[in-house]
Design brief:
The protein has about 100 residues and is mainly α. The protein contains 6 helices and no strands.
């Protein structure tokens, strides 16, 4: 089966995301977990994957990374107003860190 352009683009996105995640985890595990919104267990799995495993998983036709601003009120709250860019970035970081720390229902 010949991959479609869309399938190839998804695989490229997945591989780029996974390689970036692994690099971030090697450089600063705690910061990477926060930035990626992943658990310690997921960090262990990602950091321990071989290149062959990473490429095989990236070849999936499903996007592996998730859009973290999936709640419209959070996105609207961050984007509204005339805040300074640094203040807006800090606000977004606090919201995302709080969303990661909140227990899943």
């Amino acid at each position: 089966m010949v991959p479609t352009d869309m399938t190839k683009e998804i695989a490229d996105l997945n591989l780029t995301y996974m390689l970036l995640a692994q690099k971030l985890l090697r450089e600063d595990r705690a910061a990477a977990m926060l930035r990626l919104g992943i658990s310690a267990g997921m960090a262990d799995v990602l950091a321990g994957m071989s290149l062959a495993e990473t490429i095989r998983l990236a070849a999936s036709n499903f996007v592996l990374c998730a859009f973290r601003l999936d709640e419209l009120p959070i996105l609207q709250n961050v984007m509204q107003g005339e805040r300074q860019p640094s203040l807006q970035q800090a606000h977004l970081s606090i919201l995302l860190a709080g969303a990661q720390a909140a227990p899943a229902a």
